[in-house]
Design a protein that fits this description.
Blueprint lengths: L2 H4 L6 H25 L3 E8 L5 H11 L5 E5 L5 H4 L5 H5 L7 E5 L4 H7 L6 H20 L2 E9 L2 H13 L9 H23 L7 E5 L3 H16 L36 H19 L8 E8 L5 H9 L7 E5 L5 H4 L5 H4 L8 E5 L8 H4 L5 H20 L2 E9 L2 H13 L9 H8 L1 H15 L6 E5 L3 H19 L1
Parallel strand pairs: 1-3, 1-4, 2-3, 4-5, 6-8, 6-9, 7-8, 9-10
Length: about 500
């Protein structure tokens, strides 16, 4: 795989100067065309042998293109803040908007490369890293992000010579890192690790390109040619979709709403007693030492006027509001639409010891966007797998993820709509959208049943609660939270 790069090919100065003029012009034109579209972006992942000139080449690329629209993201060891979230959080958090170009140093490949470079790589760990990366890149690509991955390579002799030349000049010596100095001792193992990674994750939708790096002219031209080729083509969807909708998504899901007992009620005295007791238990749980190493993520969905806001207020009454963030989710803004779908939810994830409550959530894609035709069939069908993977990563990093659907009957919803219209304190809550959504009750019910059937997992279970009686629903929400918290902690 590295034979050509290890032969250290070179370009003459004359050939380089001719190519530079052509490539600079073509890159700028392609970059500006992409900016106008805003439905796609380019992500360049940089890796390879230390001391191969990666940084110098990316600096040159910024000179050849318009640097105002290039975001260079350099990731070192995770900060304390980053360690308190799932590993991919920091990459999602810094994802540039579509239309822009992102260049990533210290990418999600670093843990995989380190594992592959061990004397005895652990097969299970390699499989886990590969699966996570494959899903991440497939999700980005399906959302319009073109990914190219550049591996900068040169022979051990050329790497040693380049390092020596940099060290000999006080003005360039600072470019040599401790890792550059250690390459000679580990060169063969680094090559083996790189070969393993490229073989395992060289997909058509996110390909690796090996860049010969001994000669700076060859290195620059090969980099520019690869970037230009990516800018000039549309992102390629994975041939074998990682998040393929199974045949079950085309079958009618069981009607879980029909199984609910909407007559369940709770009288005022029992309500006050149980509410106080459960709030006390919740307060104790979130203040425990065990919770300091975890987080709590609560997602609330349900029909309009089902009482989500009231249930959330009874939960937060037990919490120190300095410990909790409440996120009311509405239609995505223009800025949010310029990023992959899950981006705005990744950015809102809580640190350890904190709580995030979502009033509406990432399930909008398979509910309102599906019913209202705001997402393509392929997008919302793919979303079931993307969401399950997202929640699996949260749970795998110690988050307690609970999802609530508060369900009311059509008659109860109509009653509440009428009450809102008459109340000066509540009439702001009723909108034309509420009435329009009510006309599509059956479509939303089918979408919700499909969602429940495909995303009710051990990592993030759904709690379906009959909410015709608000007191019953509020207490049941708290009971489910407290039960899960106490069992986990």
């Amino acid at each position: 795989m590295f034979a050509e790069a290890q032969s250290d090919p070179a370009l003459s100065k004359e050939v380089f100067e001719a190519e530079e003029t052509r490539l600079r012009t073509a890159l700028l034109k392609a970059q500006y065309r992409q900016l106008k579209r805003e439905d796609r972006g380019l992500l360049i992942v940089v890796a390879g042998i230390d001391g191969a000139g990666k940084g110098a080449t990316i600096n040159l690329l910024n000179e050849w293109m318009d640097p105002r629209h290039i975001h260079t993201l350099a990731f070192g060891e995770p900060t304390h803040d980053e360690q308190e979230r799932p590993p991919l959080w920091r990459y999602w958090n810094e994802m540039p908007a579509k239309g822009k170009t992102g260049i990533v140093f210290g990418s999600w490949y670093l843990p995989l490369l380190r594992e592959a470079a061990r004397k005895k790589p652990r097969a299970q760990r390699l499989t886990e890293y590969v699966d996570t990366i494959n899903r991440f890149e497939a999700s980005l690509t399906a959302d319009g992000i073109q990914i190219i991955k550049l591996w900068y390579h040169l022979s051990a002799k050329a790497q040693a010579k380049r390092t020596k030349n940099l060290l000999s000049n006080p003005e360039t010596a600072w470019q040599v890192t401790e890792a550059d100095r250690k390459v000679q001792k580990k060169y063969d193992r680094i090559c083996q690790a790189g070969d393993t990674v490229i073989r395992l994750l060289n997909a058509p939708h996110a390909p690796w390109t090996v860049i010969p790096s001994a000669d700076e002219h060859m290195r620059a031209v090969c980099t520019a040619q690869t970037v230009l080729h990516a800018l000039e083509q549309r992102p390629r969807a994975p041939k074998s979709q990682v998040f393929t909708a199974s045949s079950e998504t085309r079958r009618r899901s069981p009607d879980r709403f029909a199984q609910l007992d909407y007559s369940a009620t709770l009288d005022k005295d029992d309500y006050e007693s149980e509410l106080s007791q459960l709030q006390g238990r919740l307060a104790h749980a979130v203040r425990s030492k065990a919770f300091a190493e975890r987080s709590l993520v609560l997602a609330f969905e349900g029909q309009d006027a089902a009482g989500k806001g009231g249930a959330i207020r009874r939960v937060t009454h037990a919490l120190d509001l300095r410990q909790v963030d409440i996120h009311p989710i509405s239609a995505p803004s223009h800025h949010e639409l310029a990023h992959p779908y899950l981006w705005r939810f990744w950015r809102r994830l809580p640190r350890q010891g904190r709580i995030a409550i979502f009033d509406r959530s990432w399930y909008g894609r398979v509910l309102v966007e599906r019913v209202e035709g705001l997402a393509s069939s392929a997008a919302w069908r793919r979303a079931y797998g993307e969401i399950n993977d997202f929640e699996h990563q949260l749970a795998g990093h110690g988050a307690i993820v609970l999802k609530f659907w508060l369900a009311v009957t059509p008659a109860e919803q109509l009653k509440r709509f009428r009450e809102r219209e008459r109340s000066p304190f509540k009439n702001f809550k009723i909108t034309p959208d509420d009435w329009r959504n009510r006309e599509k009750w059956n479509l939303y019910t089918q979408a919700a049943n499909d969602m429940l059937a495909r995303t009710d997992t051990d990592d993030a279970p759904w709690h379906l609660i009959a909410a015709n009686d608000k007191r019953h629903a509020r207490v049941q929400v708290l009971r489910d939270i407290v039960t899960a918290m106490e069992k986990t902690l």
